[in-house]
Amino acid sequence: MALNGIVENINIDWYPDRNSQMPIYEQIVKYVCRKVSSGEWTVGMKMPSQRELAHKWGVNRSTVVTAMDELASYGIIECGYGGGTRIAGNTWSVLMSEQGADWNRYIRAGEFQANLSTIQIINKLEFDDYIRLGTGEPDPKLFPSEMMKDIMVELSGNMISLNYLEPLGLRKLREVLSVRLEKEGIYAPPSCILITSGSLQALQLISICMLKRGSTVFAEAPSYLKSLQIFQSAGMNIEGIPMDEEGIRYEAIAKHIKGFSRKDYDHMLYTIPTFQNPTGILMSEMRREELFSFCQDYRLPVIEDSAYSQIWFDRKPPLSLKARDRNGMVLYLGTLSKSLAPGLRIGWIVGPESVVQRLGDVKMQIDYGASSLSQLVAARFLETGMYDEYLTEYRVEMKKRRDNALKAMEKYMSGKAEWRQPEGGFYIWTTLKGNVSTDQLFRKALSQNILLNPGNIYDFASNKALRISYAYEDPENFEKGIKTVSELI
Question: Under a CB-based contact definition with an 8 Å cutoff, are residues 304 and 332 in contact?
Answer without folding.
Answer: yes
